[in-house]
Amino acid sequence: MLILLAVLSNPLHAKETLHIAVASNFKPVLQTLVKNPALKNLNIKISAASSGVLHSQIMHGAPYDIFLSADAARPQALIKDGFAIKSSLTTYAIGLLALWQPSTGAINNKLAIANPRFSPYGQSSAHYAKNYINPPYEFVYANNITHAFQFVETGNAAKGLVALSTLKAAYKKNNDKKYLNYELVPINQYPEITQQGVIISASRHLAAAEQFMAFITQPSTAKLLQTEGYKTKEAHVSK
């Protein structure tokens, strides 16, 4: 009996659970990353929402170990307020916008964007739309950038400013050419979407969290992110 208890309590025989709060745009990529053999010793739980919602949850004590935001402001604010570890701050990706219009025969003038109040993608989308998209159009505000994609896919909006990564994930899954009917928005025409991550100060799994943060910034991971619709250093983005 004592031998059995010793085996069950041995950390070499148990996966450590890591709870990651991730901005909705990055969830599909994260779901791919966690399958990497380099993370086989971790049991990763994912909670996805807009960066604003996740930031608020962390401020109210949500038991996350890592926060992967779609911006730089919120992780840095968590550090300032004592909720995140300063030395863990990492830029893991730069988000890219695409103007998606699946059909040229759409009958409404609605333009879906993520709500600028909660979403960094929404802030950049609003800036681009107001400066570079000719009216008439009517904004349809989504809860997050993934929700904006859903508005367009269901026909509730004729077109939308969405994450390039979401379109790539949808095309990979469904092989439908409608997901290729987009224009990549020039990155110099909207505020850069710098996506940063931090380890939460209250985490009880610091070693595991540090392992993950090292993994997400290594060159092989960066190369994958480029193919999935994100910009990293020296990235080339194409359809």
TrEMBL record:
Gene3D superfamilies: Periplasmic binding protein-like II. The keyword Metal-binding applies. The gene is modA. One of its GO terms (biological process) is molybdate ion transport. This is Molybdate ABC transporter substrate-binding protein. The lineage of its organism: Bacteria, Pseudomonadati, Pseudomonadota, Gammaproteobacteria, Alteromonadales. Belongs to the bacterial solute-binding protein ModA family. Keywords: Metal-binding, Signal. Signal peptide: none annotated. One of its GO terms (molecular function) is metal ion binding. It comes from Pseudoalteromonas espejiana.
